[in-house]
Structures are given as C-alpha cells and as structure tokens.
Design a protein that fits this description.
Its main location: membrane. This is Transmembrane 9 superfamily member. The strands form three sheets. Strands 3-4-7 form a three-stranded antiparallel β-sheet, with no helix packed on it. A three-stranded mixed β-sheet has the order 6-5-8, with no helix packed on it. It has helices at 86-92, 95-134, 138-141, 163-188, 199-210, 212-225, 231-259, 268-295, 322-335, 338-349, 357-384, 391-416, 421-460; strands spanning 2-3, 6-7, 13-16, 26-30, 32-40, 43-51, 55-57, 69-76. The chain has 465 residues and is mostly helical. Helix 4 (163-188) crosses helix 7 (231-259). It is elongated and about 85 Å long.
C-alpha cells in the first residue's frame, strides 16, 4: 500500500502446511491490520504495518463474507520531512548492493575498452594498410586483386530500399534517445525521489510530446537527403511508428485490467486527455519539426559518385549473413548491461528501490558507446566482403541488443519473479515488448549514425575515380 507516497509492505495472509502435502494446506486471510505512523507537526514521516493475528479460513473455494478492520497509532518524531526518504535510500546503498553495481560498471568498462582497442586496431593498422594499398598509382595497383571496400565505392552510398520507413526509424530512434537523456538529467538532479508515483510517467509523457519535433526534424531531413517526395506520409509514419504499437498494447492491457476490476485500469477521461495531447500538441510539433528539417537540410554529399546500376554482391559465408551478425552485434553490448538489468526489472516489477541514477547513466552511456563501436566494426567487415547493402544492416545490428533484452524478459519472468496469471503475464510482456521495441529503434539509430560517420571518413580518405 501507499500512504502519502510512502510505501508499506505486509502479508495479506498466511499458509499453514502441517503435513507437507499440498492437499493439507490451509489458507488464512488477515482481517485486521494495525498501522503505526510517525509524524512531525503536519507531515507524515514514516509508516509501518502489522497484523494482530485475526484471520479467516478461505481454503474452501466458496464465497465468504469478510469484515476487515484496521487501527492506527500516531507517534510524534523529531525526524524532518526532508529526511523521510532516507530509510528507503539506504536500502540501495547497502555495501553489498553498491559493490555489485560497481562490479557491473567495471565489467562494462572492460567490455568497452576491449571494443575500443579492437576498433583502434582496425582504424590504425588495417585501414592504414588499405589506404596505402588503394592510394598507390595505377601501375602498382595492378599488382593487387580488385577486391575490398574501395571497389564498391560506386554503390556504398546508394540509398536503401523503403526510404520512408528507414527515415521514420531514424526519427523515432533520435527522439527516444533524446527522451532518455532528458529523463536521466531529471533523475540525477533529484526529481524522481523514491516512490514519487506518477512523476516518472508524467515526465515520460510530457518529454515525449515535447521531443516529437526532434523526430520530425530528423526524419524529414534524412528523407529529403534521400530524394524522398512523399514527406507528409513519411512524417505520419514517423509519428505512428512507436506510438501506434504502444497505444494498441495499452488499449488491450487496459481492457484486461477493466475485466479483472483492477485499479491498474486508467479511466476513460485520462485516456481521452492523452489522445487530445497527442493530436493537439504532438502532431503539430512533429510537422513543424518536419517542415524545419525539410527546408534547412542540404543535399546528401556523398564522397563518391553512385553508379547507375548496382554492383553484384558476391556469395557470402553464412556467418556474414544478417541473422548471425545481429546475434554477435547484440550480445556484446548486452553483456555490458545485463547485471544492471536485474535491479531495473526488480524496481519496475518488484518491490525493490532503485535510486543510484548516476551509475545507471554511466551504464547507459557504456551501452551507447559499445553499440556504436560494435556496429562500426561489423559494417567494416561487411564492406570488406564487398557487400554494399549496409544501411539496413547497421540498423539491425545496432538494435539487436533490444532483442537480447526481450530474451532476458523471459528469464526474469520465469526464473526471478513470482508473477503468474493472465493479467500479470500480459502486463509484463505487453509493456516490456514496447520497451524493447523502443530500445531497438534507439540503438539501431545510434548504430547507423556511427556507421555513417565511419563510412564517410573511409571513403573521403581515398581517391574514388
């Protein structure tokens, strides 16, 4: 329960198992609850709960009329209102918890350092050799086989298929990334104190609405660079790419909550208010950002001229296909964050408190950096194999960490949580699917933009004739 935004935990009953056999278990419901509340002047400082042993047997599957009772004892305390959350904050800063968090960061840093060293090796040694090889005059160049990433320079900047969807992914991913940065800024300065219910969700809705202009600007600018003409349809697709699946999932889960008569169901007025905000604020900002992006963006300046007809892609080994590369590209960033995932899941879906936002922000930045590095490395390997269709591949490789997070959801639900029943199962997997989809869009955008900078640098460093 919550009282004045303070959480209070207690058992609703007990199970008596005298013989050890399932059929002999008796289930008893507590009918009287005693609250003890500490106060300072007109402020509630602390609350505790206990039971006095009054129970009723509910083992039989039949209707029972229960009379619930409660009592309250008020005690005055000198503890100030500003320190009333210390009790919950201390749980997050217990030595064993902090040690695990720091171990998580060290694990993530080692992963990033290895990736950085690996990428540096590619940039300094391999690319240096490539530049020397491809910058030789024609007489020396004849001694080399015509293979490698230079010889697809006429196709590497060929725009991908489904340009409108591609740009919508980039717009939505950029918006979600900026949303994450703003949320972390508010968390670090102390806006989201423990159990300030609704503050985080309100901030998510408000910031998502206000950053819709960023999505429109990013999508429209890329779409114009790719010579797209249906820019209105592109903006509509950008606005609905993440919102529509989220809203449909919400409608289904809200219907389930209403069917179970749960307090998790939002009233119709709140849903109508969210729709009005989306129509009256989000959509105009989206289109304003799109107009600004379309009118202020120059043409796509490719370092190399694109050939009229695409070059044939040679037969590639199985491990160079999309699915194996997605598995490898997603596993490395996921391994840098999986320790921290348990605490996040336990805070969202359990009763644990998560307040070390600075550590969480460090882990998030490690995730972003490792995703960028891994995607750049796989893009280089793809181009070295003369596979010039790297645009979508970089998005899929970057976003594949979201697929791994979704896989972790199954592990947490069945191995770590006590959730059961259709409502809890549908709520967990419904909303976590939307969260993992958002991570896919965000990290896919980061992977592509990092790869684009890398590919531009490569081809600007050689003479493309």
């Amino acid at each position: 329960m919550y009282y004045d935004d303070l959480p209070v935990w207690g058992s609703v009953g007990e199970v008596v198992d005298s013989s050890g056999r399932v059929h002999d278990r008796r289930y008893f419901l507590y009918t009287c609850v005693h609250f003890e509340i500490l106060y300072n002047e007109d402020r509630v400082i602390e609350i505790g709960v206990a039971t006095n042993g009054e129970t009723i047997d509910i083992t039989e599957d039949k209707d029972v009329v229960v009379e619930f009772k409660y009592s309250v004892k008020w005690k005055e305390t000198n503890k100030t209102f500003e320190r009333r959350m210390d009790k919950y904050l201390q749980q997050s800063f217990l030595p064993q918890h902090v040690e695990i968090h720091w171990f998580s960061i060290m694990n993530s840093c080692v992963t990033v350092l290895l990736l950085t060293g690996f990428l540096t090796t590619i940039l300094i040694r391999v690319l240096k050799n490539d530049f020397i090889k491809y910058s030789c005059d024609e007489e020396i160049a004849d001694d080399f086989d015509e293979s490698g990433w230079k010889y697809i320079h006429g196709d590497v900047f060929r725009f991908p298929p489904f340009k409108s969807l591609f740009c919508a992914v980039l717009g939505s991913g950029t918006q979600l990334f900026m949303l994450s940065i703003f949320i972390f800024m508010l968390a670090i300065i102390g806006v989201f104190y423990p159990y300030n219910r609704g503050a985080l969700y309100s901030a998510l809705v408000i910031i998502y609405v206000l950053t819709s202009g960023i999505a429109g600007y990013s999508a429209a600018s890329f779409y114009k660079q790719m010579d797209g003409v249906y820019w209105v349809g592109n903006l509509i697709l950008t606005g609905g790419l993440f919102c529509v699946p989220l809203f449909l999932t919400f409608c289904f889960l809200n219907t389930v909550a209403i069917g179970y008569k749960s307090t998790a169901a939002l009233p119709f007025g709140t849903i109508l208010m969210i729709l009005l905000i989306w129509m009256l604020v989000t959509s105009p900002l989206l289109f304003l950002g799109g107009i600004a992006g379309r009118n202020s963006t120059a043409d796509f300046q490719a370092p190399c001229r694109t050939n009229k007809f695409p070059r044939e892609i040679p037969q590639l080994a199985w491990y160079r296909q999309t699915a194996p590369q997605m598995i490898l590209a997603g596993f490395l960033p996921f391994s840098a964050i999986y320790i921290e995932l348990y605490y996040i899941f336990a805070s969202i879906w359990g009763h644990k408190v998560y307040t070390i936002y600075s550590i969480l922000f460090i882990v998030f930045m490690i995730l972003v950096i490792s995703t960028a590095f891994v995607t750049i490395a796989f893009t280089y390997f793809q181009l070295s194999a003369e596979d010039h269709e790297w645009w979508w591949r970089s998005v899929l490789c970057g976003g594949s960490t979201g697929v791994f997070i979704f896989g972790y959801c199954f592990h947490y639900f069945f191995a770590r949580s006590d959730m059961s029943g259709f409502m809890q199962t549908s709520f967990f997997f419904g909303y976590m699917t939307c969260v993992c989809y958002g991570f896919f869009l965000m990290l896919g955008t980061i992977g592509f933009k990092a790869s684009l900078l890398f590919v531009r640098h490569m081809y600007q460093s050689i003479k493309c004739e």
